[in-house]
Specification:
Gyrase A, domain 2; Four Helix Bundle (Hemerythrin (Met), subunit A); Rossmann fold; seven-stranded mixed sheet; six-stranded mixed sheet; 15 helices; 17% strand
């Protein structure tokens, strides 16, 4: 299949200014030359230099299909490291498909999802971590995700993993050389020195594994949960931040009985924003389930938005919510809502209650979801929590793939087994077994040991034409 010439539409199939049909494989230039003509009716593509663009028309027999620009890129200087032709035609569903159909009629096979990137991997132009970065780049929802994907595409994961794997392989080679030729190589002091090196490697792996938490926030969004008593204004806050009427808002307490989640882009930050049932003691069976789900979501949140009704006095339900904030240790923003009404709870009273419940120094922002007062400041404070250190997303290498994280965990566990074997004075050949397991796990990250099934699974998740 890798020897086939393939084609697909690489732009969105919709009304647009241009559409691009990508052709890749050993017969890409020949196939395109058979359907392309210059304004003077000449076939020129097989004789043109690489990385040149040519104006003309696509023909299906004697019928003119479209006016196009054709880019020719010869192997290995292309995305797939194969001969590649990209036909830039007029956008639109019908026009682009018509050009693709003409290409396929010239003896080219339709590409499978992700097959262009798969060929780039199989041809050695990129490793598996860079291939995964392509998918992340396409699906990036915010600046963090975009920046991290570009970093991985440039080889940040490859560099870190390859460097660590090389050091482990070097130590394996030293041990095996000494075991094979004990007259010339001594193992005196090797286990002790190796244990020290393993400590360094294990620390590096742990740092990468820990970065996966940031990676999840980067790719999926920051789990932001709105909590508060019933009728405090949680659903109104949800609708404001989402920019749409997602949650039902009424004067009846307990309207929200389940969790509702929306993906919201707030000043370049992706929030997985969740509206929850008002937390209170209730005998209503359905509402009680909603309250428990609210507590569960609050415990698993990255950021909490606690909405307090300033027109009502604080009660035991507020105390429970404050305890939930304190026990979770999750960064939180407290919003004192309904400041347009007569106050039963002032900012000073709320700060005192927070202090009494172990939340000293917690900022309180007065807002009114009815008049809009303070809401822009609330947005600003959320961004400050994310960018200012309380919920700081790492600027360094961040692991965003669950597959990569699991392999890093496996590699670290193998090194810890090696360290334990050294403590138990196990023979040196036992040490190399676990160390080799660590190397194989790291090799799976870059694709050096990846099997066909794994490769197919990864690329099947890509969009058509990529």
């Amino acid at each position: 299949m890798v020897q086939d010439t393939i084609a697909a539409i690489s732009t969105a199939v919709s009304e647009a200014g241009i559409g691009i049909v990508r052709v890749s494989g050993p017969d890409a230039v020949c196939a395109a030359d058979g359907i392309f003509r210059t304004p003077k009716g000449r076939r020129i593509l097989q004789s043109v230099p690489s990385h040149t663009i040519h104006y003309g028309y696509i023909f299906d027999g004697d019928e003119t299909v479209d006016e196009v620009l054709v880019s020719v890129m010869r192997a290995p200087r292309s995305f797939t490291a194969e001969d590649t032709v990209e036909i830039n035609c007029h956008g639109g569903i019908l026009a682009t498909r018509r050009v693709l159909e003409t290409v396929l009629a010239a003896g080219v096979r339709p590409a499978e999802p992700g097959e262009f990137t798969k060929r780039a991997f199989l041809n050695g132009r990129i490793d598996l971590s860079q291939a995964e970065a392509v998918g992340l780049l396409i699906s990036a929802k915010n600046e963090y995700a975009l920046k991290n994907s570009v970093s991985q595409l440039k080889g940040s994961v490859l560099e870190a993993v390859r460097g660590l794997r090389g050091q482990i392989l070097l130590e394996i080679a030293r041990i095996e050389a000494a075991l094979d030729d004990p007259e010339h190589y001594s193992l005196d002091g090797v286990p002790e020195a190796l244990k020290e090196k393993i400590g360094v490697w294990e620390g590096q792996l742990k740092k990468l594994i820990d970065s996966a938490h940031d990676g999840r926030m980067i790719t999926e969004g920051i789990r932001t949960v709105i909590v508060g008593r019933p009728n405090a204004g949680k659903s109104s806050l949800m609708n404001y931040l989402a920019g749409a009427d997602c949650s039902i808002v009424t004067e009846v307490a307990g309207t929200t009985r389940d969790v509702l989640t929306q993906t919201v882009n707030l000043r370049g930050i992706t929030l997985l924003l969740t509206d929850t049932a008002g937390i209170r003691d209730t005998e209503d069976r359905v509402e009680k389930i909603g309250v428990e789900r609210a507590r569960e979501n609050a415990r698993n949140a990255d950021l909490l938005l606690y909405v307090v009704d300033s027109s009502a006095p604080l009660d035991e339900n507020d105390k429970e919510i404050m305890e939930l904030l304190r026990e979770s240790g999750t960064p939180a923003l407290v919003l004192l809502n309904k400041t347009d009404l007569e106050a039963a709870t002032t900012g000073e009273m709320l700060k005192a209650a927070l202090y009494e419940n172990g939340l000293a120094g917690q900022e309180v922002l007065p807002v009114s979801l009815t008049t809009g007062n303070g809401l822009s400041q609330a947005e600003e404070m959320i961004t400050q929590i994310v960018y200012g250190g309380r919920l700081q997303v790492s600027e360094g290498l961040t692991i965003t793939s669950v597959r990569q994280k699991n392999l890093l965990v496996s590699a670290r566990e193998s090194l810890l087994k090696t360290s334990k074997s050294i403590e138990l004075n196990m023979p040196e050949d036992f040490l190399t077994i676990d160390m080799m397991d660590a190397c194989e796990a790291l090799g799976d990250i870059t694709g050096e040991h990846a099997g066909e099934d794994l490769v197919n699974e990864i690329f099947s998740k890509f969009c058509m034409g990529k």
